[in-house]
Structures are given as C-alpha cells and as structure tokens.
C-alpha cells in the first residue's frame, strides 16, 4: 500500500458487527469492539482498521493525504434505513385528532383519507416539489447517521405518478451522498378510480406499471401492502411473482394488522424481507426462517398508531433465529419521523431488544434487507467507508438517552459529509450534487 486517502484516528470506541451475511438469532449480540482505534481509507473503501498504534505503525512509510481525529468519540458502521416512504407530497397532521379519538388506521383509509390523502397530494405535486421535500427528509436522516436509505413509491398509483416518485428517488440517489435504493410499491392501496375493482387494479399493476418500472430500471424491489381489505394473499402473490419475472426482488408489508399469511407468502415467493409482522403467526415466522426472509421491524409505527401490540422481536430472535432488522418506516401517516435513533429507543422499550441487537439490526441486517451486505453494514476491509461518529460513550447510550440526536459526524464513501452535527458535504461523493 503506497497511499491512504483518509486516516480516521482518535476513535475512542469502534463497534461493529462482522461479516457480510445477516446475523441470525444469538449472533445479533456478537459485536467486535476496539478501544482506541483507527481506520484507513483508500478510494472510498476501508483498507485497514484496528488498534490505533498497530495501524499507525503499519502506515509508517505510507503517504496519507488527510487525517481526521474524532476526539475519542464512538464510531459504528453508517446506519442503514431499509424501509421508508421517502418521496411523497403533503402531510397528514389534519388526521391527528381522528387518530387520537380512536378511529383505526384502516378505517381512515376506507373513508378516503390515510394513504389516499397522500396519493392526492403526490399526484398534484410536480417532480421538483417532491424532490425538495424528500431532500429535506433525507438530510435529516443523514444528520441522524444514516448512509443508505430505501425509498418506496406507492403514493402515485397511476403509471405516470408512480414513475414520477421513482424518478425523484433516482435523482436523489444521483445527486445526494446518501445512497437510495428504490422499491416499486404500486400495490400500496386501491385508488378511487379502481374502487371496488381491486382485481382490475392488480391487472393494471401487472400489465402496465411493472413493465414500465422494469424497462426504465427505476427499482430494485417490488413491494405489496398485503392486508385485510387492501391486497389479499392471492393478489399479492400475483404482483410479487410478476415483479420477480421482471427482475424485481420481492418485499412485502406483511401481517401488520391481521394475520393474513403475508409472512408465509414471503417465504413462498422468496422475498428478501417481510416488514411490520405485528400479527405474524409462528407458522409465518417458521416459513421466513426456512426461506431466509429478513424481518424488518418498525416499532415507530406501532408507537405512533398507539397500539398496545408489538412485533415479537424476542420470539423472532430467540426461538426462530431470524436476523431482525429495524427501520423508521418514515411516511406521512403511520410514522412521520426520520429519526432512526428514536427507533432504537423504541426497539429497546417495546421490542425488548438489547443494544447489541439494535446496532446489528440497524447495520448489517438492514444492509442485507437491501441486498447490500457485501458492501455496507459493517466495518470490514474491502467495504465502503460508510461510518457514523457518535457523541456517545457506548452503544447502550443510544437507546438510553432518548429524544436527542447523538450523531457528531458521518463519513460516506470515504468523504466527511457531516461534521460537528452539520452537513459539510459540497461535491465530495457525487458529482453535481444539489444540497
Ligand atoms: N402500512 C402501509 N404503508 C405504510 C404507511 C403509509 C401511510 O400511512 O401513508 C407503512 O408501512 O406503515
Ligand atoms: Zn411501509
């Protein structure tokens, strides 16, 4: 090695899961911890990491372009948010009183509100407005320490409006340092023009939407809201298999409210992940374990909907040895927050996950829920140099001291893009970025 682009020193504590694969069951508790550490970066990737003295000795004859000292802070892999509805128009604070008075989530949707209210706003918005709004949220996520985000469509529900959302996500990916991985979710709700004709809308998704999304290569994944009164297991199966045929990997909003069999379907169609899962049965969880489906849990959603019920994270980890991932589910209805650190606290409080499990769920397991475990999700030689620097003494401090942002800095692809809690990125990671 002749050169290092960036040497990160002064790391009080480096904490990371290890490897590329999802960490299942008890493996979720196993982390690598190094005190007084350093990380060497070349061409955006990690080339060395370990105890600082060892790294410095090894680099004695090597030219180092830049060194930063993180002042004894804690460094983890960049956080990954694998389930968001990032791009949408409008907001839904007008439904707050209704929600608080006890009107159920699906009832608000049945009355033409909920997701359909956001569909109206998204259809009415131009690409530029959607871009500016999503950019604001993406910056918020970045300031929280997130370096990769999944973004779903599903508020357009016409060919053009779905493509519009996905094009905005693509533009964000092209211009913003945070990586965006897109999911087509035309099957998010049945739009008013198809009311009472769900089968015809499924035909429309399969025959009109999916081919366009695949042709324009606008998404990696295809997702369906498989729920009582929304899309049945049969309809979801049809859409996910059609998506798979077009090269889109299945994901599924499964068993959120009713135990419909979405978890079983996830196993059957070879979904990469199944999300929500509050009502998933043992049979469903067993099917997921058998077929390697990652459960993506969204404790912010049950919290915000005021539900007493939570996803059975302990059973998933202890009995079914599943690799649990966590996510914000950022969306304007059931979970309007960009804060992955709030989700960490809720995972501790309501899902009874340990700090070690929470970090694993927000890094390597979340990376695998996006099929990116080879590149991100752990501090490993050869992986992208995506790092989050926390003003926190240890990982337990993150879910413990809640309601505040502990992120001091973020390094993405080997570039410092957040420092001292502010975005300092100009054009380091991606050309022509607009921030
Ligand atoms: N459950 C379905 N979809 C979203 C919520 C979308 C919305 O309410 O706008 C979710 O993951 O929670
Ligand atoms: Zn969702």
From TrEMBL:
Q: Recorded GO terms, molecular function?
A: imidazolonepropionase activity; iron ion binding; zinc ion binding
Annotated catalysed reactions: 4-imidazolone-5-propanoate + H2O = N-formimidoyl-L-glutamate
Entry GO terms, CC: cytoplasm
Task: Please name the InterPro entries in this protein's record.
Answer: Amidohydro-rel, HutI, Metal-dep_hydrolase_composite, Metal_Hydrolase
Named in its record, the pathway it takes part in is:
Amino-acid degradation; L-histidine degradation into L-glutamate; N-formimidoyl-L-glutamate from L-histidine: step 3/3
Binding positions for Fe(3+) per the UniProt entry: 83, 85, 253, 329
Pfam families noted in UniProt: Amidohydro_1
Name all Amidohydrolase-related domain ranges.
74-414
- EC number(s) from the headed UniProt entry: 3.5.2.7
Residues recorded as binding N-formimidoyl-L-glutamate, renumbered to this chain, are 155, 331, 333
Which cofactors does it use? Zn(2+); Fe(3+)
Question: Is Cytoplasm one of the keywords?
Answer: yes
- Which family is this sequence assigned to? Belongs to the metallo-dependent hydrolases superfamily. HutI family.
Q: What does this protein do?
A: Catalyzes the hydrolytic cleavage of the carbon-nitrogen bond in imidazolone-5-propanoate to yield N-formimidoyl-L-glutamate. It is the third step in the universal histidine degradation pathway.
Question: Could you identify this protein by its name?
Answer: Imidazolonepropionase
Q: Native species of this protein?
A: Paenibacillus pectinilyticus
């Amino acid at each position: 090695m002749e050169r290092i682009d960036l040497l990160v020193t002064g790391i009080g504590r480096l904490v990371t899961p290890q490897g590329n694969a999802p960490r299942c069951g008890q493996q979720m508790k196993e982390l690598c911890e190094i005190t007084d550490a350093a990380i060497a970066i070349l061409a955006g990737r990690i080339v060395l990491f370990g105890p600082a003295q060892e790294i410095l000795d090894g680099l004695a004859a090597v030219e180092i372009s830049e060194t930063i000292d993180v002042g004894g802070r804690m460094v983890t892999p960049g956080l990954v948010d694998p389930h968001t509805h990032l791009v949408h128009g409008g907001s839904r604070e007008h439904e707050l009183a209704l929600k608080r008075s006890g009107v159920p989530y699906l009832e608000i949707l049945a009355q033409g509100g909920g997701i359909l209210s956001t569909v109206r706003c998204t259809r009415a918005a131009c690409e530029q407005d959607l871009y500016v709004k999503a950019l604001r949220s993406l910056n918020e996520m970045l300031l929280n320490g997130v370096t990769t985000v999944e973004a779903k469509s599903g508020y357009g529900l016409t060919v053009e409006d779905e493509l519009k959302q996905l094009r905005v996500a693509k533009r964000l990916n092209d211009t913003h340092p945070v990586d965006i991985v897109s999911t087509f979710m035309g099957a998010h709700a049945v739009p008013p023009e198809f009311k009472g004709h769900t089968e015809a809308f499924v035909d429309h998704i399969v025959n009109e939407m999916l081919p366009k999304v695949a042709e324009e290569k606008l998404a990696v994944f295809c997702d369906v809201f498989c729920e009582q009164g929304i899309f049945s297991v049969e309809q979801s199966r049809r859409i996910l298999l059609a998506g798979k045929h077009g090269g889109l990997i299945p994901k599924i909003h499964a068993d959120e409210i009713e135990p419909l069999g979405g978890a079983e379907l996830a196993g059957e169609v070879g979904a990469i992940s199944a999300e929500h899962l509050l009502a998933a049965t043992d049979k469903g969880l067993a099917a997921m374990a058998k077929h390697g489906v990652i459960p993506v849990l969204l404790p912010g959603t049950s919290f915000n909907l005021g539900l007493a019920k939570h996803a059975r994270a302990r059973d998933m980890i202890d009995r079914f040895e599943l690799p649990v991932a966590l996510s914000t589910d950022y969306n304007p209805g059931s979970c309007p927050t960009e804060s992955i650190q709030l989700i960490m606290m809720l995972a501790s409080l309501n899902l009874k996950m340990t700090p070690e499990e929470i970090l694993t769920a927000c890094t390597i397991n979340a990376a695998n829920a996006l099929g990116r475990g080879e590149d991100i999700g752990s501090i490993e030689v050869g992986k992208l140099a995506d790092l989050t620097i926390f003003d926190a003494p240890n990982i337990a401090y993150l879910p413990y001291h809640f309601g505040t942002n502990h992120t001091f800095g973020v390094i993405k692809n080997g570039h410092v893009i957040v420092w001292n809690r502010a975005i300092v990125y100009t054009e380091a990671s991606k050309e022509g970025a607009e921030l």
